[in-house]
Design a protein that fits this description.
Strand order of the largest sheet: 1-2
Structural class: mainly alpha
Distance between the termini: 42 Å
């Protein structure tokens, strides 16, 4: 809850301006079910989709519009954890560790391009 404002204030990719024809939606989990969070999200121009705490999770119908996908960050962390040097951090210096992360990312991108092309 305390970091929601900071996270939305510093996006990695610039957010397009919402229009009446293309409103911006924000989906977060029950951990953000606070009146302050809801007010702050609405002031930023988002349509909030925050489930209430204490309610059971609603399961969507079988006819989904979009297939289920893992979150990009979780998927990328899993790909990085396949490399033992990153999972068990042997590197003492941060610069060496970042170099290993970048090298693993390059390998991941190369393999994805090689298999996809």
């Amino acid at each position: 809850m305390k970091m929601l404002q900071e996270a939305l204030h510093r996006p990695v990719i610039r957010r397009p301006q919402p229009t009446p024809h293309a409103p911006q939606h924000l989906c977060v989990d029950k951990g953000y079910d606070y009146p302050e969070c809801r007010r702050w999200v609405q002031r930023r121009g988002y349509i909030d989709h925050i489930p209430h705490r204490g309610e059971a999770v609603k399961t969507p119908s079988r006819a989904k519009r979009h297939p289920a996908r893992r979150w990009v960050v979780e998927r990328t962390n899993r790909w990085h954890n396949l490399y033992r040097r990153l999972k068990i951090r042997y590197e003492v210096h941060a610069a060496h560790y970042i170099g290993c992360v970048e090298f693993a990312s390059a390998i991941i991108c190369f393999r994805a391009c090689h298999l996809g092309c």
